[in-house]
Amino acid sequence: MATKLVFVIFILCCQMNLAQDLSKLYEDVNPAVVVILTEEKALKQVGAYSQMISSEGLGSGFLISETQILTAAHVVGVAERVLVQFFDGEIIGATVSSSFDEPDIALITLAFPKKNASVVTLGDSDRVKVGEQVFVVGAPYGLAHSLSSGYVSGRIKNGNASNPFTNSEYLQTDAAINTGNSGGPMFNLEGEVIGIVSHIKTITGGFQGIGFAATSNIVKELLLKRSIPWSGAEIFPLSEDASKLLNVPQKNGLLVQRVVRSSPYGKLGLRGGTVKATINDTDILLGGDIILAINGIRFEMTDETLKKLGDYAASVKSGDPIVLEVLREGKIIALRN
Q1: Domain span at residue 94?
Q2: Active site includes 88?
Q3: Measured between alpha carbons, how far is 288 from 170 in angstroms, rounded to an integer?
Q4: What is the Cβ-side half-sphere exposure of residue 275, based on CA atoms within 13 angstroms?
Q5: Which pLDDT belongs to residue 9?
Q6: Average pLDDT of adjacent 10-residue blocks, the chain of 337 residues
Q7: Signal sequence span per UniProt (predicted)?
Q8: CA distance 273 to 171
Q9: N or C: which end of the chain has fewer CB within 10 A?
Q10: Are 44 and 13 in contact (CB under 8 A)?
């Protein structure tokens, strides 16, 4: 009996120490977490007509320097306006520097440096093991700087390392993730960021214990080591069958969905879609430009072509010439800067 009592007391003490450690960690890292407010254009159906309207968005992110913030691609990818709200209440505008849809990660840059910035560091996600405790800080449903904790439940990795566009790696967790958490940091118990909160799997629409965060190592590789400039266009890759349906004069193309007006592709005059449709259970927009080639590199859904496009994009500097060959209303035209 005495042995059992000692064991119970030991377990309770361990839990209390863990709670105290988590509370202290939260106090240390929380000032680096930010709320991201966006405004983007969305297509709305009004009777027999459709029109583009402004839509407000909400997400989370975190500071890695006095000017740089990491977040999720779907939070800022086609945002016409990005505002960052800090722990002290200050709000600073930002622009998107780089973004990758498949791993759902993005880097944004502040309009001016944040004074007395609190920053966090990226840990080594390869060292993370299933069963480790983690915690997430973000703004679920607008409740800024909320904490949830849980465990790493698994790891999912897809893609070829030579091609940056289809690479992704996620940590699965049961830590609560809801609308507004996207882009926020997932921390280990050393206070290092090991993931960027991305999405959940759900039947009800709410959190059901299965959430995903892009790993810190995929972030380092794609956003920090070989950053590719943000294009400002949301695109949908067309399969060979879909290309035939749309009379595309080659096996594959990139169907433009939405374009940020002030972005590099927006300034070229690239046009987005105007009509909602569904192809193979996927909702898309039709009527926009279809990109056939970028600076002479003809688009194909092969690893070789995607690697060429990745190498080209990583080498682009401000002011370099850009030529897009697009299919628009049945005609092939060239868009140049």
Answers
A1: 31-110
A2: no
A3: 32
A4: 8
A5: 46
A6: 48 49 94 97 72 86 98 96 96 96 96 96 97 96 96 89 86 94 96 96 80 96 89 95 95 97 95 89 93 97 92 87 96 95
A7: 1-19
A8: 33
A9: N
A10: no
Does 167 lie in the same domain as 239? Answer: no
Residues 250 and 311 in one domain: yes
CA 317/CA 294 separation, integer angstroms: 15
Residue 173 CA to residue 212 CA, distance in Å, equals 6
Q: Does residue 241 carry a catalytic annotation? A: no
* Helix ranges, the chain (H): 2-29, 73-76, 216-219, 240-245, 264-267, 303-315
Within a domain: 5: no
User: Is position 104 annotated as part of the catalytic site?
Assistant: yes
Give the domain CATH number at 60: 2.40.10.10
**8 A C-beta contact, residue 58 and residue 35:** yes
What DSSP character marks residue 156? E
Buried b (16+ CB within 10 A) or exposed e, 211-221: bbbbbbbbbeb
Does residue 1 fall inside a structural domain? no
The two tokens of residue 116 are 């007395």
Quick count: other Cβ atoms within 10 Å of Cβ 2? 6
Length of the chain: 337
Catalytic residue among 60, 97, 99, 104: 104
The whole-number pLDDT of residue 19 equals 52
